[in-house]
From TrEMBL:
Subcellular location: Cytoplasm
Identification of the protein by name: Argininosuccinate synthase
NCBIfam families the record matches: argG (TIGR00032), PRK00509.1 (NF001770)
PROSITE patterns, sorted: ARGININOSUCCIN_SYN_1, ARGININOSUCCIN_SYN_2
Gene name per UniProt: argG
EC number: 6.3.4.5
Residues binding L-aspartate: T128, N132, D133
Organism encoding this protein: Actinomyces howellii
Xref: Pfam families: Arginosuc_syn_C, Arginosuc_synth
Length: 421
């Protein structure tokens, strides 16, 4: 219930995350019919492309929303959500760059802002009851505004796809209806997620029409070489041209996408226990992570770099599992941020045939020392001190081998290989 002293329902409208698509367009009228409450639509632009925001805003009103707001959150999404993911080289299950998982906490934040502004007690979203996104929306909302209620018309008010189509036709809603929309798609500037349809049969390979952000890597144009400049973990220039985080992602989506970089086809473990087939395209994200990792190899101290791998995995799992606003995620952010102090410099990247490959590294704060590494003249590494180093480093190995000999055990692979009598 609302904590505001609003006596009538229409003073406590439901704030709906509105995409402009069929389900959320129908949800406007459906919520009103089922709950008697008005709906205020909020459309958040996270770089999903497609329709103009003003067109979406007008459609929400045409579908019966009492008010409709649009938020251009593209810069905010790129800077405050994609860049932390880049600094964490975040790939869920080693593959998925968290496209949808990153946008939900941001959309939730804007829903909460609107709800508070207009004194609403309830926010609604168009997610089903089977996926991760419902959890991300609702856990994000409850983390920042525990006083708010959440409503999922699809899950809680039986708004199935067929019901939605019938409703849209019956009410002549200004939205395209088709019963054979083959995929469920979520996209933003960090990438694109495609699921359902014929992909649910795991043996079916994706067809050409699945892909939008990437061209076929089997028929690539000539290799594309570029230089990305990073400052403390964030791309600030491409080929010496200054870029914002959003521009960096957009530019790499274009150039890496043209080379078919960032196609990902996986069986993924959802938070709700279901395994699902997911096809992703994230050319910009994959190319940026490749370059960022390459620069970290040069600039991070060895133990810090090794430990960061564990943090990266946990960070990705937390964000996937709806913990964007959790204390642990915040603590890990602080660690990751601290590691980025010297992640500045340039990486040369070659994009070609589905791959983004680092082919050059330079940094004023790197830990690579040519004179230590070289085998040519100029070598300053004192090889004679390696002898003493190995004596001490190998001490335990020597003790273990001596014990094995004493106890008559096979202690080495050489013993294992000896013929058995
Ligand atoms: N499986 C991905 C995730 O959980 C993608 C979800 C995409 N959402 C959608 N409505 N198609 O992050």
């Amino acid at each position: 219930m609302s904590t505001h002293n609003d006596p009538v329902d229409h003073a406590d409208p439901v704030v709906l995350a509105y995409s402009g698509g069929l389900d959320t367009s129908v949800a406007i009228g459906w919520i009103r019919e089922r709950t008697g409450r008005d709906v205020v639509a909020v459309a958040v632009d996270v770089g999903q492309g497609g329709e103009d925001l003003e067109v979406i805003r007008r459609r929400a009103l045409d579908c019966g929303a009492v008010r409709a707001y649009v938020v251009d959150a593209r810069e905010e999404f790129a800077s405050d959500y994609c860049m932390p993911a880049l600094k964490a080289n975040a790939l869920y299950e080693g593959a998925y760059p968290l496209v949808s998982a990153l946008s939900r906490p941001l959309i939730a934040k804007h829903l909460v802002a609107t709800a508070r502004q207009i004194g609403s007690s309830t926010v609604a979203h168009g997610c089903t009851g089977k996926g991760n996104d419902q959890v991300r929306f609702e856990v994000s909302i409850t983390s920042i505004a525990p006083e708010l209620q959440c409503l999922s018309p699809v899950r809680d008010l039986a708004l199935t796809r067929d019901v939605a189509i019938d409703y849209a036709v019956a009410h002549r809603l200004p939205i395209e209806t088709t019963r054979h929309n083959p995929f469920s798609i979520d996209q933003n500037v960090w990438g694109r997620a495609v699921e359902t349809g014929f992909l649910e049969d795991l043996w079916n390979a994706p067809t050409k029409d699945v892909y939008v952000y990437t061209d076929d890597p089997a028929y690539p144009p000539v290799p594309d070489e570029l230089i990305i400049t990073f400052d403390t973990g964030v791309p600030v220039a491409i080929d010496s041209e200054g870029v914002t985080p959003l521009e960096a992602v957009q530019e790499l989506n274009r150039r890496a996408g043209a080379q078919g970089v960032g196609r990902i086809d996986v069986v993924e473990d959802r938070l709700v226990g279901i395994k699902s087939r997911e096809v992703y395209e994230a050319p910009g994200a994959v190319a940026l992570i490749e370059a960022h990792r390459a620069l970290e190899a040069l600039t991070l101290e060895r133990l810090q770099r090794r430990f960061k791998r564990h943090v990266e995995q946990t960070w990705a799992e937390l964000v996937y599992e709806a913990q964007w606003y959790s204390p642990l995620k915040e603590s890990l952010d602080a660690f990751v941020e601290d590691t980025q102090r010297y992640v500045s410099g340039e990486v040369r990247l070659v994009l070609h045939g589905g791959r983004a490959t680092a082919t050059g590294w330079r940094s004023p704060v790197g830990l690579y020392d040519f004179n230590l590494a070289t085998y040519d003249t100029g070598d300053t590494f004192d090889q004679s001190s390696s002898r003493g180093f190995i004596d001490i480093y190998g001490l335990q190995s020597r003790l273990v081998a001596a014990r094995a000999a004493r106890e008559g055990q096979a202690g080495t692979t050489q013993d294992d290989a000896a013929p058995v009598s």
